[in-house]
Structure formats: C-alpha cells, structure tokens
Amino acid sequence: MASVNMHEPSPQDAAAAHELLDWALARLADRRGTLPPADPHVTLPAFSAQGIGTAAALHALLGTVFPTAVPPDHPRFLAFIPGTPTVAAALADMSLSAAMVFGGSRLEGAAAVDAEEATVRWLADAAGFPATAGGTFVSGGSMGNLSALVAARGARYASGRRQVVITGTSAHSSLAAATRVMGCDLVVAPPADDHGRLDAATLTAALEGHDPEGVVAVVATAGATNNGAVDDLAGVAGVCADRRLWLHVDGAYGGAALLSPRLRGLFAGIERADSFIVNPHKWLYLPFDCAAVLYRDARAARHALVQQADYLDAIADDEAGNPSDLALHLTRRARGLPLWASVLAYGTDAYVQAIEHCHDVALYAAERITASPALELVLEPSLTVVVLRRLGWDAPAYAAWSDAALHSGLGMITPTRHDGETVLRLCFINPLTTRDDVDMVLEDLAKDPA
Ligand SMILES: Cc1ncc(COP(=O)(O)O)c(C=O)c1O
C-alpha cells in the first residue's frame, strides 16, 4: 500500500495554496457577488481509501460547499446579527491555523497571550473596567455568558437552595440555556418599556421574594438581539451594588458601540459591572467564531473556572494566570489574535468610523420607513436594529417575501415577532452597507403584495 505523506506540502499542495490565497482575496474583494446562494442540494464527493488530493478537496470546498452558504458579510444580509471580517482579520485568522498556536497558556503561547491580553485591555478600557480586570476569548456569546455566570456563582458562593439568574425580557436565549446547564432557574423581570428594557424598578420587583443568597447574577443586556435595546445599566448597577449582587452585562452585539463617542452614553453604568461579554465576530469585524468575556476581578474568575490536573501543573501560572483559566475551555485557538492584528493594522479610529457608519445607515432606514406610506416603524430604533411593519401583511406574507428576497439576491432579511405580531427586523452592522442598499430593500418591500 503506497503511503501518503499528509504532513509535508507537496508541489501540488503549494500550487493549491496559491490558488486558495487568490480565491480568498477575490472573495473578500467581492462580497456583493455572494448572493443569491447556490442551490444547496449538491453532490458531495465521498471519502475513499486513497483520498482525492489536497487540490481536489479544496476545490470541493471552494467550488461546491462554500457557494451554497448564505454569506453574513453581504451588505444586504440584514437578518440575525451578521458579521463582516476586515481583510486583516480574515488573513490573520487564516494564518492562525498554519501557525498552530496553543492559546491556552503563557508557556506555549507567550507573545500570543500578551497580544490577546492587550486586546482584552483595550475592550476593558472601553468599558471603564479597573486594572484588576482580565478576560479571554471564547467561541461565542453563549460560551461567554455561561462562563461569566459560572464565575459569578463561584465568586459569590451562592448558597440559597434555589439559585436564580435574573434577566430582563430582552435577554438572549443563551442565558436560558446557561441556566439550564447550571441547574439554576431563570427569573425574567417585567419590561420597563416597549423595548422590554430592564431598569432599577423592574429589577427590584423581580428580586422580591428571592433569597439574595440564591441570586447567582443579574444579567443586563447592552444591545438586545431582537430590537437593539440597551437596558438601564446605571439603574441596574445601583440595585446590584446596594444588594451586593453580581452584575453581568451581555453586550455580545451592542458592546462594540462602547467604542463610539456618539453611542457610549447609552452604556453608562457598565463600568460597575462584574463581567461583560462582547462578540468581535459581530460588530468588531472578525470571522467566526470569537467572543470576549471580561471580568472586573480576573483573580476571582480564575478561582471559579481554572482546571486542575497533575499534568497541567507544568503550565499553571499562579501569578499572571492563563487564558485557559478564564472560561470553560482548556485547549483554545488564540482567536483574539485576528482582532489584535486588525486593530493594529487599521487603527482604532477606523473602528469608530465603521461602527458609526452602521448607526447612520440604521437612522437613514428609520427615516425612509417613516416616510413610506406602506411601511411603519414598530419601535424607535436602538443602536442599529430597525423593527418595521409592512402594512397589510400577515406572517405568511412576510415569510414569502423573505424567501423571495433571498432567492432573487435582494438580501437576507427575516421576520421576527414583537408583542406576538410578526414584523420585520433589519440589523445594520456591515460598514459596506450603503443608503442605496437600504433603498433597494425598502422599495421592494413597499412595492406590492407578497
Ligand atoms: C445579545 C446576545 N447575546 C448572546 C448571543 C450568543 O452569541 P453566540 O451566537 O456567539 O453564541 C447573541 C447572538 O446573537 C446575542 O445577540
């Protein structure tokens, strides 16, 4: 049986690698060319004893698999929370796989850990966290929220027989999932307003009747996925401080706006939180998957999260700690490095401009909706989520339009619900989205019955 050397590049591999780089640059240069997606009913090549070679395997990925994906970086992908990596971030991310950096420990990662920590510090400064703060990068907001709640429980030694996590109505579904994993109950405070915000009064109402010892954490949302709302962080922080409760802020989507002088005021109070998350794979322009989880007191978080084993003594760092100690992970990709490389490459001003451009486009969309006789704003836009109604449409009409929009290449725009009513939701976090894109979508939406 002929043996194949899978671990050294052959001349054919080198040719395939150059082709791959050309493809990657062309893909990044033409994000508008990615819609509509190809028919996903493709025939995938099967595994075989001999294999088909690197070039053919890459062709299968580039030519067969990738074209069927709906690209979140298309300027009219306005559903869910999309993502648009910068060129430097995408290239740095590609390089990470070949460099094979173990990002879990200082012993192995050295400067990679320093670079990730500098990036964490940049985010901590944006939130106004003290010098004791620290954090790491995990796979996503769900893992970030879970890690923060586990740290909260560890730090507080919550001892009530019934342990609860308290959120507002706009909290992300990952928090319900985290409480299920932790065996805690989720208590949802009543909404303070149409956006479902949490404030001091609604939090106080939700706390009534709960043993404070059993409150693992209060979670405020800084940028609700469904409508962009930012909870009253200052009011909530005040209640938490009075009662010595752990405050976690979920800024998975909205946290990026901490960098914008124009939007920073919405987050007043975040500096008093015990932990917060922000997902660079959303509005900080990284490829999937990357969320930052930050703790006000990194030592307390380490205490709750560090893994111990005889064979790990070699990497343990009791003084400075390791990235592995700060979340539910051990082996980890240094997934914060592409953010470090991207901020280094373009500078912090470029981030502010990109974030504020998205806000401008969201405000423009709101204006156009208000001016259209066929459309109606459902809520005042918050951050960059715009929720609207197409007059006369029901749920099947929205679904039909959304499906047609995707397949014609108009865009990826999906319905949601507000107060039980099916409505449409646009999320603007792509700096390549223009006013013309907004006009195209809204004109199509307004033009005729679905
Ligand atoms: C506010 C908020 N929190 C948490 C999450 C979960 O993040 P992830 O999808 O990265 O797990 C999301 C994702 O959309 C989100 O918008």
Written description of the protein model:
The protein has 450 residues and is of the alpha/beta class. The chain is 41% helix and 12% strand. The protein is built from 15 helices and 11 strands. The protein has helices at 11-29, 54-65, 87-99, 106-109, 111-127, 141-156, 173-182, 200-207, 233-243, 280-283, 298-305, 337-346, 348-371, 395-408, 435-447, and strands at residues 134-138, 164-167, 185-188, 215-221, 247-250, 275-278, 291-295, 375-377, 385-390, 415-418, 421-427. The strands form 2 sheets. A 7-stranded mixed sheet has the order 1-7-6-5-4-2-3, sandwiched between helices. Strand 2, helix 7 (173-182) and strand 3 (185-188) form a beta-alpha-beta unit. Helix 3 (87-99) runs antiparallel to helix 12. The mean pLDDT is 96. Residues 81, 140-142, 145, 172, 174, 221, 223, 225, 250, 252-253, 279, 291 line the site of pyridoxal-5'-phosphate. Pyridoxal-5'-phosphate binds at residues 81, 140-142, 145, 172, 174, 221, 223, 225, 250, 252-253, 279, 291.
